[in-house]
Write a structure and sequence with these properties.
D-Maltodextrin-Binding Protein, domain 2; nucleotide-binding; six-stranded mixed β-sheet; Alpha-Beta Plaits; alpha/beta; ATP phosphoribosyltransferase activity; about 35% strand; 3 domains
Length: about 280
C-alpha cells in the first residue's frame, strides 16, 4: 500500500482531508483516529503533526506527505516538493518596533526570535548577515516586549496581531508558503502508485479551477465564440436542429466565467450555462 502522511491538526488539516475526500479516498471519521486504511484504493493514511511530516517522509517510512512548504524547508529534511495544492497560503516576514531596523541589512549583532529557525538561519546566511536566532514555539510577538529579541520572524496573514503588539513589518518577504505534496529525495519519481495519487489531486485542482460552459451560437459567429472559449485542447461543437445554429461545450477558468458569459451574449450566443466539475483527468 501507498503510505501517506496527512496533517492531524492545524490550518492544513481540514483542507487536506477535504481534498483527499474529493479525490475519492477514505478519510477518518473522528480526530482520534491516527491511521486510516483505504483497501479499495490501496492506501494507508497516517495522521501526524504537520511539523513532523517531512521528517517521516525523508526517512522513507512513508511514501508521500502533505505539509506546508515552510515546514518542509524549516525541517531541513531530505524531501522535496512535488505538487503545490493551492491552499494554506501564508507569507513569512520580519517585524520589529518602529525605528529599530529598516530591513535585514540592519540586523547585524541583533537577535531574531522565530518558530522557524531553519528558514531564518538560511535566509540570513544567504544575505551574509551576522545575527543570532533564538527558537520559540509560538507567540513570538512577546519576545521583543520581554527583551528576548529585537526582531521577530513569523507567518503574516493580515498583520493585525503585529500591529496590536506595536510592531511593524520590515523588509521584503522571506518566503511565501502553501500546502504541498512532498516525497523523499531517495524515492522513485516514477512510482506508479504515487503517480496515480498525484493525478487524482491534480484532477481536484483542475475541477476546482474550471467550470464546464455550454452555449448555442450562430454558425457564422462560431470562430469568434471559440476564441473566447478555446477549452483545453479544443471545444466540442455540434450542429443544432435549427439550421445555422451550433452547440458549443468547453472548459473555462471559473474566475473568468462571468466575463466570458457576458462576451458570448454580446456576440449573440444564447442558452449559456455553466456547471461545476467534480473530477477530471487531463
Amino acid at each position: 500500500m501507498l503510505r501517506i502522511a496527512v496533517p492531524n491538526k492545524g490550518s492544513l488539516s481540514g483542507p487536506a482531508s477535504a481534498m483527499l475526500h474529493e479525490a475519492g479516498y477514505r478519510m477518518r471519521k473522528e480526530s482520534k483516529e491516527l491511521v486510516v486504511v483505504d483497501p479499495e484504493n490501496e492506501v494507508e493514511f497516517f495522521y501526524l503533526r504537520p511539523k513532523d511530516i517531512a521528517i517521516y517522509v525523508s526517512s522513507g517510512k512513508l511514501d508521500i506527505g502533505i505539509t506546508g512548504r515552510d515546514l518542509l524547508l524549516d525541517s531541513g529534511a531530505s524531501a522535496e516538493e512535488i505538487l503545490p495544492l493551492n491552499f494554506g497560503r501564508s507569507t513569512f516576514r520580519y517585524a520589529t518596533k518602529p525605528g529599530t531596523a529598516k530591513g535585514p541589512e540592519d540586523f547585524t549583532g541583533m537577535t531574531i526570535a522565530t518558530s522557524y529557525e531553519g528558514i531564518v538561519a538560511k535566509h540570513l546566511a544567504e544575505q551574509g548577515i551576522d545575527a543570532s536566532v533564538v527558537h520559540l514555539d509560538g507567540a513570538v510577538e512577546t519576545a521583543i516586549q520581554l527583551g528576548v529579541a529585537q526582531i521577530i520572524a513569523d507567518v503574516v496573514e493580515t498583520g493585525t496581531s503585529l500591529r496590536n503588539a506595536g510592531l511593524e513589518i520590515i523588509g521584503e518577504p522571506i518566503m511565501t508558503s502553501e500546502a504541498v505534496v512532498i516525497r523523499s529525495n531517495a524515492s522513485d519519481p516514477e512510482d506508479p502508485r504515487a503517480q496515480q495519487f498525484l493525478r487524482r489531486l491534480q484532477g481536484v485542482l483542475v475541477a476546482r479551477s474550471y467550470v464546464m460552459m455550454d452555449y448555442d451560437c450562430r454558425a457564422e459567429h462560431l470562430e469568434r465564440a471559440v476564441a473566447l472559449t478555446p477549452g483545453l485542447e479544443s471545444p466540442t461543437v455540434s450542429p443544432l436542429h435549427n439550421e445555422g445554429w451550433v452547440a458549443v461545450r468547453a472548459m473555462v477558468p471559473a474566475k473568468e466565467a462571468q466575463r466570458i458569459m457576458d462576451d458570448l451574449y454580446e456576440l449573440g450566443a444564447r442558452a449559456i450555462l455553466t456547471t461545476s466539475i467534480h473530477a477530471c483527468r487531463l
